[in-house]
Each structure stands twice: as structure tokens, then as C-alpha cells.
Amino acid sequence: MRAIPLLLLAQLCVSSAPVLITLCDLPPATVAAGRLLGASLFFLPFALPRIRRELAGVARADIVRVCIGGALFGIHFVLFIGAFKLTSFESAVVVLSFQPMTALLLGQWMLGERSNGGMWLAVLAAFIGLAMLVWNDATVDDGASNLDRVLGDLCVIGACVLIVISYIFGRRLRQKLSFPVYIVIFFACGGFASVICAILMGERPATNDAEPWLWLLALIFLPTITGHALFHYLVKHVRVFSINIVFVLEPLMAVSAKWLIDDPERFGPAELGGIQIAGAVLLLAGVTVGLAARERGLKKP
Question: What is the pTM of this model?
């Protein structure tokens, strides 16, 4: 039970990311690299005394897998952060709630996990809700580029897929290594992958303004160290169902934070039309029901 408050704390911190990303006016891959390399350096002093001894006891293939997982995690960050430059704040955070459903689908495909009729009905509902959100962005007439909006939505969907695959690649080694050693390797690989993305994208983050770098520092400590890193710590102590179900809270937390800040100049106007609301409700309901159906299915002999 003591893990549940930590789980909620982690989700609260992760939910601060959309607001902080919007405030941090730096290129996407630069932000991703700064977050992951900064977090890796934070945990490095705790990992150094044991890293050589622990790595000597694991297979090289497992180390390669966690490095691939970390790199995919970094690209997830690049895609998700970049989406805020393309689509609306609301669309980015609501589409991200498709992540648990992605975990259900990839768990069935890559891990051979059991499924049932309730799960697939929920998947269908979530897909319809997701399609409504993307369709709204493709057809809304508000002066913004519809192509950019759809591309932003696709970036978030791609980010959902990559973060789930990254967890699948890294979870075996997470069981064998201490938390500091695992998280340093995982975040460092993600950070280096983000640096490569920044170079390939030709990003030039030079700025004399200190404010964006202060927001980047907040991104390192709040959603990355206290959020994502805490999720990786808890994955050994709570059920995957519990971790997935709290992801459904992120759109509510992030959109509520935007409304409380009430800064249309930075965050854009409030965008929750009828189609968006219906699509969001259908998507979130599908995700919640799908996770519950999977949990019931796993309890059956």
C-alpha cells in the first residue's frame, strides 16, 4: 500500500511535463537530451560504486536490450515534446492517454499475453475516440495548419508506441540490476539518442535568455527524476495494471493545470469542442475498461 502514494506522486510529477514543455522554449531534441542526460548525471554518484560489479553478472544481450530500450525512450521524448510545436496542448495530452492501450496491444503481440472479448471491445472504443480526435484536428478551421495538427497527433501516437517498447526491452534487466545502475544506463542511452536526433534535425539551442534553461532544470527534476525515474523504481513493487491505470489521470491533470495558469498567449486558447470532448471521453473510457478487462483476464486460471 505504501507504493500507491509514490505512484500518485510520480504521475503528478509526470503530468507537469506538458506545462513545463510549453514554457521551455527550446528545440524538442535539445529538451529531451537535457532532461535525460541531466537525470542520468543526478543518479550517477549512486550507481558508480556498484555499476562494474553488477554489469559483470548480466548477459551482454540484456545490456544491449536495455540500451536499445533507453534509446527508444529518448526518441519518445523527442516526438512527444515536438508534438507541442505542431498540435494543440489539449490534443497532445489527451492522445497520450492511448499509451496504456498501446501496452495492451503490444503485450498481446510481442509477449503473447492473454486477451479477452472485453479487452478488444475496449480497444475498438479507444480507437474510435482516438480517430475522432485526429479527425477533429484534420478538419477544424481555426487558421492553424491541419496537416501540422495531424502530424503532431501522429508524433504523440508514435511516442506511445516507443515508450511501451522501451519498457518491454528494459524490464528484464530492471529485475537484475539495482535501481541506480539501471536508470543511469537507461537514461544515458536515451540522452545520447536525443543528442543524435538534435544533430540530425540541425537544432541550434543558443539563447541568451536564462528562462528556458530554468524551465529545462524543472523538467529534469520534476517529470524526469521524480516522475519517470520513480515509475521505473516502482515497476518491481506494484502491478503493471496500477502503473497503467494512473496514466489515465494525466490529461485531466495537465489540462487542469493549463486552465489554472490561464495564459492563452503561451498555451493557446482553450480547445475542447464537442467532437474533442466526445472523442476524449470515448478514448479514456476505452482505456480504463480495457485495463480492467485485462486485469480480470489475468486473474482467471
Answer: 0.87
pLDDT means per 10 residues in the chain (301 residues)?
Answer: 79 93 95 98 97 92 94 98 91 83 75 66 77 74 72 93 88 86 97 97 84 96 96 77 71 81 77 69 73 60 50
Cα 253 to Cα 97, 125, 195, 222, distances in angstroms: 12, 23, 30, 14
Reported for 275-279, long-range contacts at CB under 8 A and 24+ positions apart, including other chains, are: 275/132, 275/133, 275/135, 275/136, 276/90, 276/91, 276/94, 276/132, 276/133, 276/136, 278/129, 278/132, 279/94, 279/128, 279/129, 279/130, 279/131, 279/132, 279/133, 279/136
Q: Where does residue 135 rank: exposed (0-12), middle (13-18), buried (19+ CB within 10 A)?
A: middle
**Domain extents for the chain?**
14-299
CA count, 13 A, side-chain hemisphere, 82: 26
**In the 8-state DSSP scheme, what is residue 223?**
I
In terms of Cβ atoms closer than 10 Å to its own Cβ (0-12, 13-18, 19+), residue 172 is middle
